[in-house]
């Protein structure tokens, strides 16, 4: 049975993209420091980061708008990225797409990650049991990015994939990540998030306070309708023993599949058990 997306493509799923935009130069000219190799590398990566899973191609103006870089800078860097194979340029359309070198780089990172390799069978088992979707992700800026995702055979499921970006402040994955940080690191991130969404800062503070409390008391956090009103999710923090970046595991779905009471009583404990089992497998204990 074909999976049906529950998201309207017109909805602002990538609304937090605005938090990633760089401030534009008031003169529209390339900054004097652009000759610095590190600065050029940073801007080149900004261009690659401008692509989302929904973008087959992007034009120059879209890259300028999303990165805040000057037109001359975008033109110069895209030319370099095309030459290196990180972007592909369609001359007929005048648009860019992700190149083979970028795909290869991302695939190498994912395929060599032992956490993803060990987690996927456990994630798929929980997805099949709940009829929902189970994902693993980590922070990138002020968003969480999917590193792995497993779906059930349910005809209605979350249509998010590897590379999808979701808000750090309003999702179970993001709240689980934040709740698992030490207070100093968490405080710095919280300030950035509040600056990016002043109107929702009080609601975010309340959600985070509850998430920290739930993590201590139950080992998991919940997000009921805080991202989209029809989505409930549970999240847990996972700190790899090898010092790799902190990740979060989540199980989420529409409220009909994952009612709040079911999340608290059953799904949450199962996700905590999944994280414990993953840790055992990664350390060689069964």
Overview of the molecule:
There is one protein chain. With 286 residues, the protein is α+β, with helices and mostly antiparallel strands. It has two domains: 14-103, Winged helix-like DNA-binding domain superfamily/Winged helix DNA-binding domain (Arc Repressor Mutant, subunit A), CATH 1.10.10.10; 113-282, Beta-Lactamase, CATH 3.30.450. It has nine helices and ten strands. The strands form three sheets. A six-stranded antiparallel β-sheet has the order 7-5-4-10-9-8, with helices on both faces. A two-stranded parallel sheet has the order 1-6. The chain has a two-stranded antiparallel ribbon with strand order 2-3. Helix 1 (37-49) crosses helix 3, helix 5 packs antiparallel against helix 9 and helix 6 packs across helix 8.
């Amino acid at each position: 049975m074909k999976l049906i997306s529950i998201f309207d493509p017109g909805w602002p799923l990538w609304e937090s993209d605005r938090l990633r935009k760089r401030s534009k130069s008031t003169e529209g000219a390339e900054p004097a420091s652009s000759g610095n190799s590190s600065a050029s590398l940073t801007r080149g990566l900004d261009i690659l980061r401008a692509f989302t899973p929904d973008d087959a191609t992007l034009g120059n103006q879209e890259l300028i708008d999303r990165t805040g870089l000057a037109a001359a800078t975008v033109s110069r860097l895209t030319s370099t990225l095309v030459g290196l194979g990180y972007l592909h340029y369609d001359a007929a359309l005048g648009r860019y797409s992700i190149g083979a070198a970028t795909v290869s780089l991302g695939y190498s990172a994912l395929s060599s990650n032992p956490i993803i390799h060990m987690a996927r069978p456990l994630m798929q088992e929980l997805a099949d049991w709940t009829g929902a979707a189970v994902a693993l992700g980590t922070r990138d800026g002020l968003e969480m990015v999917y590193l792995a995702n497993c779906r059930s055979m349910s005809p209605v499921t979350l249509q998010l994939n590897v590379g999808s970006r979701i808000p750090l402040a309003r999702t179970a994955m993001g709240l689980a990540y934040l709740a698992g940080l030490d207070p100093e690191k968490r405080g710095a991130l919280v300030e950035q998030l509040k600056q990016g969404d002043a109107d929702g800062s009080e609601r975010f503070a309340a959600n985070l306070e509850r998430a920290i409390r739930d993590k201590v008391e139950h080992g998991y956090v919940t997000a009921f309708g805080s991202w989209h009103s029809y989505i409930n999710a549970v999240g847990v923090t996972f700190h790899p023993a090898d010092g790799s970046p902190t990740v979060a595991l989540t199980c989420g779905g529409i409220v009909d599949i994952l009612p709040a009471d079911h999340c608290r009583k059953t799904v949450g404990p199962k996700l905590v058990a999944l994280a414990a089992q993953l840790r055992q497998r990664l350390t060689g204990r069964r």
